[in-house]
Amino acid sequence: SKATVSVLNCSTSTMARRFGTLCCAALAATVSAEKSSLPNIFFVIVDDFGWAEVGYHRDEPTPDVQTPTIDALVKDGVELNRHYVHMTCTPTRASFQSGRLPVHVLSVLATPCDINGAIPRNMTGIAAKLKTAGYATHQVGKWDAGMNTPHHTPKGRGYDTSLNYFDHGNWMWSELAWQGSQNHRDDFPLDGFYDFWDTDKPARELRGTGYEEYLYRDRVQHILQNHNQSQPLFLNYDSRLCHYPLQAPVEYQKKFAHIEDDYRRTYHAMVHFLDDQLKNMTETMKELGMWENTLMVLTSDNGGFVLAPNGGCNSTTGEEGPEDSDMGHGTACFNGEAGSNNYPLRGGKYDAFEGGVRVNAFASGGFLPEKVRGTKLDEMIHVADWYGTFCKMAGVDPFDQWAADSGLPPVDSEDVWPLLSGQVATSPRETILVNKDLLIHKTWKYIPGGSHLAGNARGGPAYPNATTEAGDNVNKHVLVCPAEGCLFDLANDLYETTNVAAANPHVVKAMQALMKKERKTIWEAKHRTDPTCAPMCKKLYGNFHGPWQEVDEQ
Hints:
554 residues; ten-stranded mixed β-sheet; 14 helices
């Protein structure tokens, strides 16, 4: 169908980014465009997004959680109540991009300088698949899925453009690479490599020009406003929010001045910024006439972190520091790994409990049939399933010939569109071997005997709090599974309060047999830091992260 849309001019000034919702003014000119018959796909991965950090997961409203845009998107969409991921970020992201369960692609954290990369070189990414159906493909934000060769980067995986960083996190003003959480450190660990990449080169011109998420907003605006709507769009926004180190613009921190705990205040400020970010992007799609033909899917990459604070946050001097410095922008948290909350779920990031692997997720957008809008799905979906789903929606075979020719595991993604669209009531996804010691089958969850399960606690509605600062964090509580293992009935015990293994020996036996079978399919590669990575990156890019092998192919 033909549509007449306004051509928008989006200001990229700091003032406009901070105080404008859309930062755009319609020009007098209009263009007529043939709209694609295939849906636009807007796929969002939020980083370390706690279950309790959205309004729709709160029984009682609280000023600590301000997510009106997310709540409205859920209300107009489908809440995905059993959406599973890995308990850490890299495996989840590798799973989505490759269409494999983490046990068939990557089940451990991998750094950008990993010898084998997060995803094997010869696996076909979801963007490459959608390009064969004519999609324009763009990635913005956290990649965390490898950079060994140009093939490992977003461009190499099929994205036309990207503005990304490669590691688990980076500093949000300087774009310096994150060096991991600190322990009772007072000075800012601001040195090393820059981690900011623009499609096929370091993002030198953009680095240090503003709060990183504002730069992502500008890039998304550019993509949307310059998109030819006769071509379907696949936009993968991998938000930097809300990973460590915790940083938010001062004006957002002030909105939560009533929260005494530094970690919780800064984290909630970042979540609220995320909500405004999604408002900006979705309202732009509506203004451009794109939303009516868009399927939006949002998921976290794992549960929110609930580790020890390890020394408190740091307040920098001043509130209007230079845009290329992480100093002078209020509070920043880089000690420990605290601030998030998964209540009432047990555990969090890194943990086998539901708080680590069952995450905030929903689908929204005008492409969803009206009959399913405003509903909740309690059927199981895994993040890997969106690969096969999007392929089927685009009319593309998800089979990965390149991987097959290379002796690599096949795509095991399920098509969940019939479930999501209300055509069927049962999910095709019945079994998830999260890792070798965690199996979820239908509504049962099993962990072998002798396993030590960290995170055996729930934080409460306001967490972290004073007891957390005193050393009583969720992650320190450990459950040791007895000889028969730990069995949880998720249909009747969402909060995993009772191990029912002893009362259900027949279920335990069946789960053990299934786990033994599924373990035989595990695929693994060696993962460690390549010592040639850092010197090669310095030589090639001048202290920026980037691919360091096969670079002559660029």
